[in-house]
């Protein structure tokens, strides 16, 4: 996922409200683009009675997004929007490692993937108490194993390492 | 017949094929249920598991719920699993047969190797107990005089009760307004509250309420009166040769070794004779109807053909 | 057997030690299940059912009652501590729970929520005991047309959740409505917005959306906190409360109001605890002399939400026990638990097994009462210590927990991708000033409104007037008008007062 806009996170110091105005304008355009994407797809709904409600929602979204954009022209918002992302490296690191983790759960198994993901992410985010890191990982995984596998017998993806 | 099956089972165990060598050792057998936990099919599956584990030595079953898209997710999963006997599924007919006609599914009827049928719930037409309509004859007469005036609940287009209802409408040459409820409970409150005139339901769901005296069963689409609720007349008795309903059974992905199919089939048959299981089934109002692998396969094949014909002449979507 | 005798025998039965223990185990298990995102009371009971096959009925039903009451309360624990509602019905709990935890009053907040849950649950159980037959007839007055109006009524409460920016709040709601249309349309059977992706034909499971929107953004925020502050401290930890909350008297009106709302909503099949919590939160806010304190750490708001969602519990079993018609997923599963014991819920059960039925109802009341003692204790002893961990660890723990919880709902790998997707969406929405609660409410109420309206129109054969003329519809429509008119009247009146003071 890309960020909606770069302007939104420009350094402070501009006149108050500018950031929020730009941000809202970009968001309105983004919403209209996504809504159009859905509008085209709604053309494939073959029954008119099934198509009606989704199109009503889309028209509502168009209207609201339009108003949101218009408002930025006439109203100087008097509050500054807080930064969307406070730490880009941490955000990127966390979202990307999580994505890798999620995609490896099906092939490696939940416990195998987690036993790597948890301590590594904690380390990369700056945790240097390695004992605590490893202890928490194992306690957490033992607890989830007890609840999900032992007590509730939930079927999980096959584990690569210990053939659970 | 029973003895014969027992013998084949014994033979199967004594002369294990290559695939049978260690089945079901070690690995758990996944039993895919295409509906969510707590639904009728799920409870049936979970009730069966301990008995299957008793009758297949060393077997361990895990119920895997894969609900969604009207059962399509679950059916796709069990149809496309590796045919090694470690994944089998519950198939709900006619739902799993109608889906490939309605849309591009990732499985066909041929993707399955039927194992055994467990439950056949005949469709039944019901009205509220204080309704003016007291018989099927009166229902048909009223519908003929006032086309589309009667509102009849069913559980979604392409579902078993919709197909049963369509069969009845064609046979009696009447027209009603069909109301596709999302499941049994909302249809039930709507009928009891008098918001709709009638419902097409499985007898298993209707029998408890009928015994309460809350509803009246006008007709059951079974060959004979059903032991579950013998007071309900059949459609055939009243001059309509209609036999329709929903079936729940086991199927494996096509290509699963025949020995495994037979072992499972035999274990299912023994479960359905276990008094402890029979008591549980009675409590859950399950109209049991065992069919072995061959019979079940033939039955489903015929049903599939009928649905194909209906889709050709009268697509519901 | 007269009711009093049956009740007395039932009362003796439930205090047998095995039965009592079953309830305690159920409550504890329920709290844990409810507190973990993805696991729900429904799932807990569904998985328990086959195990109860060989149990004594009262042991089985006691555990079921415990899981139910514990599970609905359990959702409040992560809602307060982390801002992640464990169940959808504890979303409004986050509104005031999170600000309270931030300012160091987590312990008080947990205690208020446990007590409020217990009171709501007890009130609901008493309603089930005394009012079941008359309330059951109310259920039957509601057909598709009436449910449509209920959904519209619920949507009006979105207005209160819009936050500072009405435009953005409405867009949030519309996003929820749009997500709700993805998948197969249950009335016509056609696919909508599936973009030829197989997994989208089933639509999104509600819990996936909930865990994504509410569970992942706090984790992303924590990750960034961890990276930016060298000394990793979450600032979330539960410190011993400086002052113990003692002003229970001030919560009494809220409890009475919320219990009533929860009980009434519970009787209506398919409406559910989430709506009960939202409605009672709104009403508490509306009735308060200082509505602006809500959302900033008001104990009344917290109490309203938790009392409301637990007051839904026992009363939602009224249609099940008296008519044999389960009103929601939990009730359907509980009906399964009765069936496994060879009991067919319905009026006949009250005649044939009065002691058992009353014992179960008393177990519902008892297990709700146990939340007084067990609720706060488990929250503080078991869950609160988690928060002392550095945020660099809490963030991945939340992700792992959400992933396993969401996976077990439908055993779907696609769902965990959806979880992450909704997580990033939720983070961006929140960071750009879009409130999340309207998204969830839109997703719950949109499909309900559309489906019921279309069913109602089929039944009425397209007659728009006919769907609003029943007595119940008219009552709900007038409620809608009142709810919409109150803010307007207040606004106008405030305007006049201000003008007057200006001219003087």
Task: Sum up the structure in keywords.
heterotrimer; A: mainly alpha; disordered N terminus; B: 317 residues; D-Maltodextrin-Binding Protein, domain 2; 2 domains; ten-stranded mixed sheet
The CATH topology of the largest domain in chain B comes to D-Maltodextrin-Binding Protein, domain 2
Low-confidence stretches of chain B: 1-19
| Beta content of chain B | 15-25%
How far apart, in Å, are the first and last alpha carbons of chain B? 43 Å
Number of helices of chain B: 11
Q: What is the second-level CATH architecture of the largest domain in chain B?
A: 3-Layer(aba) Sandwich
User: Which of globular, elongated, flat, extended, rod-shaped describes the shape of chain B?
Assistant: globular
The percent range for helix content of chain C is over 70%
Can you count the helices of chain C? 21
Walk me through the structure.
The complex is a heterotrimer of chains A (164), B (317) and C (504). By secondary structure, chain A is mostly helical. Chain A has two domains: 7-74; 88-151, no CATH class. Chain A is built from five helices and no strands. Chain A starts with 17 loop residues before the first helix and ends in a 13-residue tail after the last helix. Residues 1-18 of chain A have low confidence and may be disordered. Chain B has helices at residues 2-14, 40-55, 72-79, 95-102, 136-145, 160-172, 184-192, 203-212, 258-271, 275-283, 293-313, and strands at 29-33, 61-65, 87-93, 112-128, 151-154, 177-180, 198-202, 215-220, 245-253, 288-291. Chain B has eleven helices and ten strands. In chain B, 41% of the residues lie in helices and 21% in strands. In chain B, helix 1 crosses helix 9 (258-271), helix 2 (40-55) crosses helix 9 (258-271) and helix 4 packs parallel to helix 11 (293-313). Chain C has 504 residues and is mainly alpha-helical. Chain C has a domain at 3-142 and 250-391. In chain C, 72% of the residues lie in helices and 1% in strands. Chain C has helices at residues 3-14, 17-35, 41-52, 57-74, 76-81, 91-102, 106-140, 144-156, 166-180, 206-228, 252-267, 273-287, 299-315, 318-323, 329-340, 347-352, 354-383, 391-410, 413-431, 437-459, 471-503; strands spanning 183-184, 191-192. Chain C has a two-stranded antiparallel sheet with strand order 1-2. In chain C, helix 10 crosses helix 19 (413-431) and helix 18 (391-410) crosses helix 19. Chain C is globular, with a radius of gyration of 23 Å. Chains in contact: A-B, A-C, B-C. Chains A and C meet through helix 1, helix 2, helix 3, helix 4 and helix 5 of A and helix 3, helix 9, strand 2, helix 10 and helix 18 of C.
